[in-house]
Structure formats: structure tokens, C-alpha cells
Design brief:
The protein is α/β, with parallel strands linked by helices and 320 residues long. The chain has two domains: 41 residues; 238 residues, no CATH class. It is built from eight helices and five strands. The radius of gyration is 39 Å and the shape is elongated.
Length: 320
Amino acid sequence: MLKPEPPVASGTPLSGLLRSAVDSVKNASSAALRGTPRFLGLLLRKFIWLLRVVRNFVAIGAVVFIAGYVGIPYLIDALDSPRDPHQNECVSPAGTAKPNQTPRPTPGVVKDIRLTNAGAFVNRCEYSDVLYELNWDREIRHPSDPPVKPDAKKLPKLVVLYIHGWKHSADHDDPDHEEFVKFIGELAKRHDGKKQLVGVYVGWNASWHLASFKVLDLLQNVTFWSKKTIADRIAESAVVTKIISAIGAMKNREHGDQFIAIGHSFGARILFAATGQIDLRDREGTSRDIRRLVSHCAGGNGCSHPAESGIRGFHVHGPG
């Protein structure tokens, strides 16, 4: 019969081995517990650093965006066409035809009048060209008046003035200008032999002239406020009031002359301000007729544009 083996004494090598193993496990656990907070702290510090980097990038991006949104449109507007040094008389450059040398009338032809950001004439002769076109058949002629075509007929005049709006210009390839030229041409054919058609296109710096670059053209959306400022500046200059008053003064009601003024978007804003400056006591009743139709547009009859507040629109007046 086998006798049981005696228990291992505490001092034997096997007990030392077990004690060493237990101690090793305890030491490893303690090290792991001590390292966990250190790792979490390191991770937290990295996360805070990343947040600071993102915050700096966002702050810099916001500053750049605001500066670009506000500053770039005004910097580009500074590249506006220069004003004509002769604002009160037509002085044609050497080698160019003068308005008083063009045989009249020229029915169905659109006359451009370009304005600077401050409301000055880019070329004063453009304004003179319109006046000569409307005044060629006056009874008392002046030696400086333009020659009259041999087959010219004195007909009632139909003047259509158009002031374009935001994102457009007086460039001949501008969609608004092209459509207006087409419109005046169609009216001239319809009234051939009955009326003398005169189209007046008032152009101002409302576009970045980037139509050929579709991607860059999208940037024009940030120019809303700068173009609104220019429109108000032109309205305050009273140059459009001057143009409208001159055309209205040449209109002969008894002869059946008519004058139609159209404003689109900020162009309507300019036109409304211009007609508001016309003397209400005008004996021809021009201002009264215009304001009657302004009230019609203000009544929500579809005469406004999203770029406007809803009370500016196209203005029409004629005989009666």
C-alpha cells in the first residue's frame, strides 16, 4: 500500500517558484493600472491639440471668407471705367465721328449711355447722341445740328429707355443688351413708317464681366451689397434724372410722342429714385404719369425683381 507523499515544505524550491509567479502577476497588474491613466492623458492632450488646430483653421478661414466677401467686390469695382473729363459737353477723341455729324434719324438703333460708379458719364458724347436723335426735326435749327437724311420723315417718336440690373452691363455681348437690341429691332419693324423708334440702354457697373468663365461667374453672387451701393450712388448723383428729364422735355404730346422707361432689379431702384427727383409741378405731367404707374407696380402687380424690395419696377408714361 502506497503511502501519501508528505506536503511540500514552505522552504522548498517549488513554493518559491509559486510565490514568484504570484508576485509577477501582481506587479504586472499594478504596472498596467498605473499606465492606463498616463495613456488616457496622452490621448486627451492629442485631442486638445487637434481641436486647437481645427479652431485656428476655422478662424483663419472665416477671416479670409469675410474679407473676400466684403473686400474683393469693392476692390474689383475700383476697376470701373474712368469718367469723361468733359461732363457738360461732347468732345470726341481725334479720329472719331461726332454725334452732330451723323445723318438723322437712325430709327431702330439702340443708343448706349454708360455711367461710372459715381454716376458720371463714361462718354458724354453718348448722351449727346441721344439728344440729337430726338431733336433732329425741330423747327428752328442750329448750325451745329446734325445733317438730316434726304428721305427723313417726321414721325411720332417712341422712346424706350432701359436700365439693366445686377449681374449685367453695357457690353454688347451681355444677354440683357442683346435682348434689348432685338426687342427694339422688332418694335421698329412693327411701327415702320408710323413711329420713329429710339432705344436708350443705360449701362452701369453691375457685373464682373466674367460671363465667359462660368466657374468664376458664380462669384458674382457675393457682389450683391457692393452693387447695391453703386446703384444708390448713381441714383443720388441725379444723372438718370437728368437723362429722363431731357427726354421728357423733347416729347411732344400733340405729335403723339411716347416715352417708356424700364428698370430691372437694381436698375428699377435707380429709376424709381430718379423719377422721385423730378419736379411734381412739371407742366408736361411727366412725373405724375410715372408715379401713377409706380403705384401700380407697388400694388404687387409683378413689376419687381428679387434683388429689390418689391416697390420698384418699370415705369411708363405717354400721351394722356
